[in-house]
C-alpha cells in the first residue's frame, strides 16, 4: 500500500514488503530500497545504471517520467528506432509494423550518436541564451514600468498645474470684471439717486406753489393775485423747463447694466472638449 508522498521499493512489493524507496533506477524503471540498491549497485548487469534519489523522481519533467524503456504493447525492451515513424520499437513491433520501413537503426547506435553529437551542448547553450535574454527582457520591462509610472505622475502634475494656473487666471479676470461692474453700478446709482433727489425737491416746490395758488384764490386781493400769478407763472415755467431739460439731455433714458462675456471665455465652454490627450509612443529597442 502506498501513500501519495511516499514511494516504496518495487522489488520488495513483489514480496509483499512495504519498504520505503531510496533510489529510482532509470534503466530498470524501478524504485529501490536501501538494501536492494546496495545489491543493485554491486550487480555487474546493473551497477552502471543511472539512479537518482526517490524524492527527486517526481521533480522530473513529465516527458521523462512518461518515456519508458520497454514497449507497452509487448513488454520487450526497445532495440530499434524507426525514423519513418519517429518512434522506438521492439523486435515484435518490427515484425508486426515496421518490416517495410527503410530507415530503421539499432537504438543503441542512435543513442551513441546522440552522445557524441554537439546537439546537447548546443541546446544547452541555446537554452542559456534564452534564459539570459528573458532575464534581460524582464529587467527592461521592469524599467519600463518604473518609467511609465513616473511619466503618469508627471502628467498628473502637469494637468493639476495647468488647472491651477487656469483657475488663478480666471479668478483674476473675475475680480477685474466684478470690480468694473461695481464701478459702473456705483456711478449709475449715484447719478440716478441724484436725479431722484432733484426731482423730489422740484416736486415739493411745485406742491408748495399749488398750495400758494389755492390760498391766493381764496384770500388775496386782486393786486396780490396779479403779482402772485406772475411769480407763480415764472416759477412754474422754470420747473417745466427743468423737466423738459431732463428729457432732452437724456437723463431719463432707460439705462441698463449689461455683462458681455469674452468670446474667448465662451469658446472654452463651447469648443474645448478635453483637457488634452494622452497617447503611447513606441521606440524600437534592439
Automatic annotation (TrEMBL):
Where is coiled-coil annotated? Answer: 156-219
Q: Which UniProt keywords apply?
A: Coiled coil, Metal-binding, Zinc, Zinc-finger
Would I find Metal-binding among this entry's keywords?
yes
PROSITE patterns xref list: ZF_BBOX
Which GO molecular function annotation, any one, does this entry have? zinc ion binding
Q: Which Pfam families match?
A: ANCHR-like_BBOX
Q: Which residues form the B box-type domain?
A: 7-54
Q: What is this protein called?
A: B box-type domain-containing protein
- Origin species, per record, is Mytilus coruscus
